[in-house]
Amino acid sequence: MTKTVLNKITVIGVGLIGGSFAKGIKKLGLAKNVHGFGHNPENLKLAVELQVVDSASSDMAEAMQGCDLVLLAVPLGAMQPVLESIKPHLEPQTIITDAGSAKQSVIDAVQNVFGELPKNFVPGHPIAGKEQSGVTAADENLYVDHRVIITPTENSSEQATETVKGLWKALGANVEVMSAGFHDEVFAATSHLPHLLAFALVEMLHEHPELGNVFKYTAGGFRDFSRIASSDPTMWRDISVFNSEAIAKWLIEYRDYLDQMIPLVQHKDAQALYQLFETAKNARDEHIVNR
Amino acid sequence: MTKTVLNKITVIGVGLIGGSFAKGIKKLGLAKNVHGFGHNPENLKLAVELQVVDSASSDMAEAMQGCDLVLLAVPLGAMQPVLESIKPHLEPQTIITDAGSAKQSVIDAVQNVFGELPKNFVPGHPIAGKEQSGVTAADENLYVDHRVIITPTENSSEQATETVKGLWKALGANVEVMSAGFHDEVFAATSHLPHLLAFALVEMLHEHPELGNVFKYTAGGFRDFSRIASSDPTMWRDISVFNSEAIAKWLIEYRDYLDQMIPLVQHKDAQALYQLFETAKNARDEHIVNR
User: Fold this and answer.
1) ipTM, 2 dp
2) CA distance B49 to chain A (A)
3) Model pLDDT for residues A193-206, shown as the tens digit of each residue
4) Model confidence over A2-16: pLDDT tens digits?
5) What is the third-level CATH fold of B183-287?
């Protein structure tokens, strides 16, 4: 298998996600130039010093010049403005991809900016992260054995799709292709919903000062359950807003599920509760591996 | 400080919780005899072999003879039957304590069996556990730096209360005294509610075969959030039934909280969502230490 080397890859937003992508590409020599774009000169300087990128700038014309592929690794709320600023400098060969946690909203943003879905646009979503954030946490191995979802539009060309897939695979990721709609539905259920539920629980308990410092009585179970409530509020605000339809659907279903569970508890329906807990335990034990 | 050595301590139910208590008492020499009672001869044999207890039996008369303190470390559903079987053999000096996760229900069981709340009855709840269970997981250090809640009744004598507190403190625990009602309220909020929410989420997703193996798309956040859904269904059935009032109250409040959250998502109320997430993040970061 011959290695395809691109001339220039640009990463917009050199934080954990964009930085890890850039650093991996650079280490593997998959582009002659890995360029970082951002608005914070300190951060860009650091990105170059840490060898996350070869070069960096806050000038979009420079960032996009001769670029074969641009990765948008910015919050969902910044996607459309960034696309607007890319547009005047976009060259015909440039493939556009992204790392957004909700896919239809990015597709809508591209449609809004370009009036169409370009054949060189291939949305993506790497499922990776770690406790730390920012360029200092960038890790060329972040995506190894992690899932990356690609959601090509009906216009995405095979060549562009294969290029995007190939880069993630080269970084060690397990690439999976699905529709944006299915992606948004599934991740609303498995990621967005649990985050909102954890935020809600912590916030609700926080609103009960009469219990004293109620968190003092929490143990390991609560710590694990609520860990995701320490996630970045800006990111989760954006996800909630940009995948609101699917999230609201799941929140409503979950609320309805609780509506059915409450009388079981009130009426001490031991058998029904046992069955529910056992089904959940078996499903989790079968499918989720604790690490 | 002189060490008070009891003649005989009996542990009913030699699993992780009872076994760890017994093993710690035995190591510290806080009783001349640490006796284990249970119905499974294999388990009792193992408890003696592993030096968790000095002696063991399935004969309640033998277990309670000359006993200074008995710890009931059985599921909440077994408390009342065990108390019934203890009653005919109870000696005047025997202090009764327990390790149940809900306190009022144990107090009710004692009242039902004895027709009063004996002065030697001191309810307790050690907040500890680990992934493994059973006597083989018994660990004399399980309670070190863990919280143990004591909820004396209006009849509990000071001497009995101090004896129970002293033993837990000797095992390294941080002992805290509160009312049974406050205990049940606080643990319904911080432990029982999150467990039920996690069970509910996993079970709900499991009921969506049209999404394929939806768990395949979960990442670390979901793994952490749902870990407690792998808990013992029997134990959680009992907790749900024996603390049903407080749990139902919190489930309803949480359901109502979601009712208020759903329109924020539907209407993409970015500011309100941000504020909620930020409050939750700050509360968690301030109060919960990740380990």
Assistant:
1) 0.91
2) 30
3) 999 999 999 999 99
4) 567 999 999 999 999
5) 6-phosphogluconate dehydrogenase C-terminal fold (1.10.3660)
